[in-house]
Design brief:
There is one protein chain. Helix content is 25%, strand content 21%. It is built from four helices and eight strands. It has helices spanning 32-45, 82-92, 108-116, 130-135; strands at 2-5, 8-11, 15-16, 28-31, 48-52, 70-75, 99-104, 121-122.
Length: 157
Amino acid sequence: MRIIRDLEIVEDNRTRVPDDQPLPDGPVLVSLDRWRQDRDTLRERGDVGVYLSPEEDTHDLLDDLQDLPAIAFELPKFADGRPYSRARLLRERHEYDGELRAFGDVLRDQLLYLHRCGFNAFEVRADKDLDDALRGLRDFTVALQPASAPPPFGADV
């Protein structure tokens, strides 16, 4: 699967693994419940990130941020803004510098705003064009509000 990461379209090297499946070798994303249950073992691997549903808060991860290479937020519907706020808090208040990924109902119109809140990786909805979504990061040329990430306007998108 291809995703947008750091303003480029790349092959995804990270697998989201359901709780009832064994963990493959290589970078993975596990649920918050699985992380809580097997934290010490997963932390030792060094390549395990966590995915969160909108109902789950990042509060339980704050002591583990240095051990998490990636945190992914599910956006089950276009109108849910909780991941935006959580990403911004992670970047600004908690200085998280790992990958912040959006997956689910991720559309072109959201990418610039997600990026400005600190997201740097996007699994765009399967029925949408990835190249078109990447161009969405250049939809606006002026930013009037402060943000967690600089505008990608100068990027070769």
